[in-house]
Amino acid sequence: MPLSIRIFLVYLLFIGLTGYFVLNTVMKEIRPGVRQSTEETLVDTANLLAEILHDDVKNGTLSQSRLPQVLKAYGQRKPAATIWGLEKNQVNHRIYVTDAHGIVLLDSAEQAVGQDYSNWNDVYLTLRGEYGARSTRTVDGDPNSSVMHVGAPITDNGQIIGVVTVAKPNSSLQPYVDRTEHRLLWYGAGLIGLGLLFGALLSWWLSAALRRLTAYAQAVSEGRRAELPHYRGGEMAQLANAVEHMRTQLEGKAYVERYVHTLTHELKSPLAAIRGAAELLQGEMPQAQRERFVGNIDSESARMQQLIERLLNLALVEQRQALEEQVEVPLASLVDEVLQAQAARIERGRLQVEQSIAPDLKVFGEPFLLRQAIGNLLDNALDFTPTEGVVRFKAERQGRQLCFSLFNQAEAIPEYALPRLSERFYSLPRPGSGRKSTGLGLNFVEEVMKLHGGELRIGNVPGGVEVSLRFP
């Protein structure tokens, strides 16, 4: 099945399910929403009538007043109103009044005068000083025959002397509910249709873009000339650039040329020093001078050996796609091992080492690579820490990360050098000798952190430099 069809089917499923759940939820809320609005209106109407009826109920003159004739005339009115496209030709409110005992005194429907309504919730609850309302079906089993009733107290000096109830059948609201549901369905169907059209266009565009990129990759693999497809930003442009970069790397010309040139440059200096010292040693010279030249040869040879070993280690890490071993590694014991390996150098420089890592703090990764990475950091820090300086190890959890940091007292790193410190072969002169290192240590640490899903950060802090390793 083509990728565009699969993308469209997934999009169709997502849009369909989303549309169904949204429309279904909204449809279920329409009827209650309309009824809630109507109930709020009934509350206002009932309380208005309660104030109008107060005097007649108090004086017992309700049956002699004009209200029965008014309500009868009200029931016969024909509004002939058009409400949002729907015609209304009759009034639907029923109004009845009860005394303080729940006996009906007046009924606009002329059905319940003299009956005891004290057990109906609209009367019963209102007489008790609570909000009285009920919804009762006039036909059992038919939810469309329900009628909403809302009562309001008629009070005199804080005493409830009667109740007026306003009722409205829900069937009078159904046309508005039906119209709203129909409109919502049409709008929902239209939006889903537009969404599917957009999804189809997106699938077609993505498929076409991938086909162009596939054709380019196929042409490159066959050795044919091909123009890199052009995309206006986004992930497709990044993918195209990545394919082009991969092509360049596979051809190897630029990569090998740069690598060999840099390596040759790095080896040129120690080789020249060794050759010069060897030539001088062939002649007669004082013993002290001879020992100095022999020392030069030894140090330059060690430098070349270190360069080669670190290049091999770096190449090994760069070729890996994942960690070969993943276990819990106690950071405190790992730092102790690294410090023990550098104990002679630390003692020679009379350095103050502070290690405040909790024994139970562990990181998940490959012990050998982590040990080498921390060893490189310490080796680099010792190069720049002055005599009797401070080296401090810390580790703590920060949110969902574990942050390991190494501080060393030193001069601040120049701003121009900060973004380049982890570049291959880039190094700063050491304070004591003015010589540079292989420039591979921090690059190796950065590659190790990438394998562990973390990151390397280097920055100046008050009093020195701090390097931090952030693990997930």
Automatic annotation (TrEMBL):
Its EC number is 2.7.13.3. Residues 262-472 form the Histidine kinase domain. Gene3D superfamilies: 1.10.287.130, 6.10.340.10, Histidine kinase-like ATPase, C-terminal domain, PAS domain. InterPro entries: HAMP_dom, HATPase_C_sf, HATPase_dom, His_kinase_dom, HisK_dim/P_dom, HisK_dim/P_sf, Sensor-like_sf, TCS_sensor_his_kinase. The chain crosses the membrane at residues 6-27, 184-206. Residues 204-255 form the HAMP domain. It catalyses: ATP + protein L-histidine = ADP + protein N-phospho-L-histidine. Keywords: Kinase, Membrane, Phosphoprotein, Transferase, Transmembrane, Transmembrane helix, Two-component regulatory system. It is found in: Membrane. It is an enzyme of class 2 (transferase). GO terms for molecular function: phosphorelay sensor kinase activity. The keyword Signal does not apply. Its main location: membrane. It holds the Pfam family HATPase_c. It comes from the Bacteria. GO terms for cellular component: membrane. PANTHER family: HISTIDINE KINASE, SENSOR HISTIDINE KINASE YKOH. NCBIfam families: PRK11100.1. This is histidine kinase. It comes from Pseudomonas batumici.
